[in-house]
Amino acid sequence: MRLIAADVRQKATWCYGSDPLPTILKTLATDGTAAMVLYRFTQAARAHRMPVLEMVLNKATNLAGGCVIGRGADFGPGFVLIHSNGVVINGNVRGGSNVLIEHQVTIGADRRQTPVLGSDLFIGAGAKIVGGVTVGDGARIGANAVVVHDVAPNTTVVGIPAKPVQRREDRAARPAADGTNTSQS
């Protein structure tokens, strides 16, 4: 339940800028949230070795959210499907915390090699991440980008194949000129 709460709070903050109870309730009714919750229940069934329930929940994720998330896919807290329609995630994918995914994203294998995703990522609509690549912490994958090579931390990539267009400093460690923390930008 803690993972579900972390996921929904992260989505509420992304969508509405805060996470008080009324906003959490509104977030529960948004596109993609049902798929996020069902994915976490699927993970729990897997952890408790309940393969039939795991399979049923996985199929329910597909029906409720219009997405396919492999039963073995593993993401940390703050896993957010901003829009779930058309999302396909291979069952061997490993992802960190605070991974935000737009619609029509594919994160898949190539010759049995699957991506490893860091934390604090944003993956834009229609992006494809394929093969044994590593996407570093804080990276941003642009809409419709096709990632077939590693992405350095705090780097934005766009295009086909994806190429770096911007590299950011570690924003958590760098205060803004006005003294505020810029880690949320």
Automatic annotation (TrEMBL):
**What name does this protein carry?**
Serineacetyltransferase
Keyword Nucleotidyltransferase belongs to the record? no
GO MF term set: acyltransferase activity
Keyword set, alphabetical order: Acyltransferase, Repeat, Transferase
SUPFAM superfamilies membership: Trimeric LpxA-like enzymes
PROSITE patterns named among the record's database cross-references: HEXAPEP_TRANSFERASES (PS00101)
Protein family according to the UniProt entry: Belongs to the transferase hexapeptide repeat family.
**Which InterPro entries does this UniProt record tie to the protein?**
Hexapep, Hexapep_transf_CS, LbH_SAT, Trimer_LpxA-like_sf
Identify the stretch(es) annotated as Disordered.
162-185
